[in-house]
Amino acid sequence: MKKIKINYKKLLKKKNKIPITCLTAYSMPLANILDGKVDLILIGDSVGTTLYGMKNTRGVTFEMMKSHGKAVVINTKLSMTIIDMPYNTYRNKKEALKNALEIISFTKADFIKIETDLNNIEIVEHLSKNKIKVVAHIGVNPQKYSDFKKIKSVGKQPNEAKKLLDLAAKLEKAGSKFIVLECINQSTAKKITDILSIPTIGIGASKNCDGQVLVIDDILNFNSDIKKPKFVKNFINIEGSISMAVNNFVRDVKNKKFPLSKHSYK
Ligand code: KIV
Predict the structure, then answer these.
(1) Pocket of ligand 1 (CB under 6 A)
(2) Residue 1 falls within a domain, yes or no?
(3) Which domain, by its residues, includes 196?
(4) Are 164 and 253 in a shared domain?
């Protein structure tokens, strides 16, 4: 079957009909596997905690995002790509535009994602006016936390819910193409999704969103030492398969069963 390139128009049409899928990738092999299977591939700043063992995402540099971004986008032909702007790279309009233009022109990602609240809506507006396609990220903003253990869901209290609804509406008006809802309770996620004409992508925000995103390492169970948030589901135990392969390699080397002559040059 011929595979078809995904575009924003097609994703917009999925709103309220077919759930949109998004997973993170930070490298070529995973981009190759995900390409065409998910609608969106996110080069998230979660790269810091998942690949580099950082305690939070604040240590992720612009250069790290650029190089992981390029590795993923070059190897993505069918899905659309979103790249995170790392911490402290979009503190004002001028800085945000300069860095967004640089990261887009270097990586060729389709969208940039920024963590948003009432204080930086004008940045979304400024970037959108300058033809940058922006994904806003509301609810829990991980870049605000130095300690991820302190993260709690939001949106349950009526005043909190009202603020989130108001924020989401303003972000759509400012030009956001999607809004990521992180750790927002079910009923508020539904209300936000219902009032917007752009799609919402949830992470820990229930099935009441237009799509779902998760960190790839979490669904694969790459590292069982890391405590996962409640919203993560393991779909396979890759850690177990890798451990088995490593144990088999060590056993074969020790028993001189690897390498054989077929693995050697004459
Ligand atoms: O960095 C990331 O992977 C993200 C997701 C958690 C949405 O922003």
Answers:
(1) 24, 42, 44-46, 84, 180, 203, 213, 215
(2) no
(3) 8-235
(4) no
